[in-house]
Write a structure and sequence with these properties.
homodimer; 423 residues; 7-stranded mixed beta sheet; 10 strands; GTP cyclohydrolase II (chains A, B); hydrolase (chains A, B); GTP_CH_N (chains A, B)
Chain lengths: 423, 423
């Protein structure tokens, strides 16, 4: 296989193609995923400028790597720019925790991703192009729903977690995906070979190294990552004696930003933030883990096609047909793969979630299945379910979502209807 | 070059690698980008199951193609699933407009992407795997800021655009990126060969076909797309006689969803929505074009690293150093490339934006440079600029952002300070 040919059919200049086994392997640090000592684990190097250093497939910044390439092509970004990491270090120290040294617990993020400038200082000084895949900072966040909770006296200002101006003080953490392919394969119960082959073929041939470079075990996929918002002390997340209120939320731009009334996403998210603030004020800690998985990771085009199919079907948009319509268009009901979601909880050292603000059985099963205890499950208050979202919530409850009420039967599901399209 | 070798180093089964020039070219429809007749333009086929039909590089759903691959690997999605497009057609007819037939006006989306089921019905019946890249639906959106505007009587219910329950009726449109590489190269003033080579190299070797298949001119990049929200009649967007209020907004999850006070993103967005509703009520039409370009398309990890560097620098977070810190970490001040942004406006037939709710000179220049007239520019009201965002807005005004006030000088910039980190 010669994907690394150095000739080109485009332009006249030399093109460095996909790397080969053996090529430059001498200079690239070896990765021992799950090693407790970061030096033994080794740095991840996804540089695009020094092939001999590369020890991963793909490159940094998730899908924004494509924009970085565009910036180089357009002449805005100097090829080979190295980030000046001065003053960028995390505002909070997180870990290391024992979970970091368990290659079964964390397979889709790099536990050392926030601290590369510290733990790989020597390698950076030697000129290796090592980049943070996690960044930790602080923020004040203002949500109109929190101000409303203040006005209705459901929340009160304490000056530390919730400030006089209605803003909440948080630590926030951005996390880039880093997939250790043997571990990801195991998580899904398939062979690594099948995973690699399918990732390659079903993306239309992205990264031939997935199939040609079995020696490269780490893949930086061009997908969105996660953002974590912590209310209270970050270190308390690892202490099962401190009450943890948490929501794992999957992106829904149409509701999270624009407030579409067809689903419960933003109302449930802002309810969870309110619960997190209350929890921190009561001596606990709160966590929102926000994943970029728009439309159940089907993307928004598919999502909107499904909305139309739901609303136009014979009999209208009813809860009993909710999942069917997604499956007709997308082939699956959901592609979010909660199997990888708990990784970030293990990175934070979480052992117990006392109050899980989610009704999703997929999320619950993934969290508990990964060895994290879950106490109470907090459902969205009925009065927060928007007009057109009743179809979704009833369908999900019938399919196994947590409820403390009754599970709707077939007749009730057929009778729960959404708004028609007006064309 | 033999990237299409059929042998494998992984597993025992046959792996279909990247296609070659000549391979299967007989069966794949030819694309004539910019042809007025969709039949002459030809369908775009990014199928992962029938190589002989493929006439693009990459595959559908942007970065969610990786999740689709995961779904096949995990056995959740049947390989080769074909979408059932029954009842998914757009709720509004858009175009065709003369701009669709101008290959200089639209290079990064497929103007026929919403109507494939109609215009390529014959090809679909013949078994070609043609997928929509645009979906058009309707929604009611509820924003707390709109309810507040109602409470303060800045807005009033009309029963059509703004409803009794405080929700706004919109048409919303999801758009997937589709890059015609010759046109994208021209837009950035580089040769197509350089663009292809750089996209390949600087993504760490994504899609060798970028350099091996000069005959494939269309690339479906694994990046986020756009969502359009229209207030009023979609068809009015193409009529320069109808007053158009518009904002082109780039994603900022930290503000748009969580209300971080370090920037003006959500306040400016919700102000624009208020202006769009007012505009529709006054007989005009409103448009929000929301692009998935988190953190100036640098991604959120880089963004948070920059926040830390800004707040820890000697002298604190001051407006005169605002751009410098981003450049130190990322190598550029911005990677959003407004050059491609106007495409979606041309797709909607827009010839004039009467009221542009944006102060960005990059956006203004890109829109007017593409031949769209801009009337008034609407700045964010001072009272909506959050506490910690003064640094950003002053730095941007000094750098050329639109203002109807005075441009700060060096002394004023140095004196405009943000909050310190509390560590």
């Amino acid at each position: 296989m010669s994907t690394g040919s150095s000739t080109s059919t485009q332009g006249g200049s030399h093109i460095r193609l996909t790397s080969h086994p053996g090529q430059g392997a001498g200079g690239a640090p070896v990765i021992h995923w799950g090693a407790a000592d970061p030096k033994e684990r080794g740095p991840l190097i996804g540089t695009t400028t020094n092939r001999s250093q590369r020890n991963v497939i793909g490159t940094h910044s998730g899908s924004y790597g494509v924009y970085r390439a565009l910036a180089v092509a357009a002449g805005n970004l100097t090829k080979g720019h190295r980030a000046d990491l001065t003053n960028t270090a995390p505002t909070e120290r997180i870990g290391p925790y024992p979970q970091w040294a368990d290659p079964g617990k964390i397979v889709s993020i790099d536990p050392w991703g926030a601290s590369v400038a510290e733990v790989f200082a020597d390698e950076l000084a030697q000129g290796m192009d090592i980049r943070p895949t996690i960044a930790v900072t602080q923020a004040h966040i203002h949500l109109p729903e929190v101000r409303q909770a203040l006005a209705f006296q459901r929340l009160s200002v304490d000056g530390k977690f919730l400030l006089e101006d209605g803003s909440a003080a948080v630590t926030k953490i951005a996390v880039e995906p880093v997939w250790w392919l043997p571990g990801v394969a195991k998580r899904f119960g398939v062979s690594e070979a099948v995973l690699r082959k399918t990732l390659f073929e079903e993306t239309g041939g992205m990264y031939p190294e997935l199939v040609t470079r079995g020696d490269l075990e780490v893949f930086l996929p061009p997908i969105g990552g996660q953002t974590l918002y912590v209310f209270g002390q970050v270190q308390d997340l690892a202490d099962p004696g401190v009450t943890l209120t948490a929501r794992v939320h999957d992106e829904c731009n149409g509701s999270d930003v624009f407030g579409s009334d067809i689903c419960t996403c933003r109302p449930y998210l802002t309810h969870a933030i309110e619960e997190c603030i209350k929890g921190a004020q009561a001596g606990g800690v709160g966590l929102i883990a926000y994943s970029r998985k728009e439309g159940r990771a089907l993307g928004e085009v598919t999502k909107f096609l499904v909305y139309n199919a739901r609303k136009r079907q014979v009999g209208g948009d009813s809860a009993d047909k909710y999942f069917l319509r997604t499956e007709c268009v997308a082939g699956v009901q959901d592609m979010r793969f909660q199997e990888l979601m708990p990784d970030v909880l293990h990175w934070l050292g979480v052992k117990k979630i006392h109050r899980l603000v989610s009704m999703s059985n997929d999320k619950f099963d993934a969290i508990t299945g990964s060895g994290i205890e879950v106490g109470e499950r907090i459902k969205i208050p009925d009065e927060l379910v928007p007009a057109d979202a009743r179809v979704e919530i009833e369908a999900k409850i019938a399919a196994g979502y947590f409820t403390d009420g009754s599970v709707p039967d077939a007749t009730q599901l057929a009778a729960t209807k959404g708004r028609d399209l007006v064309e």
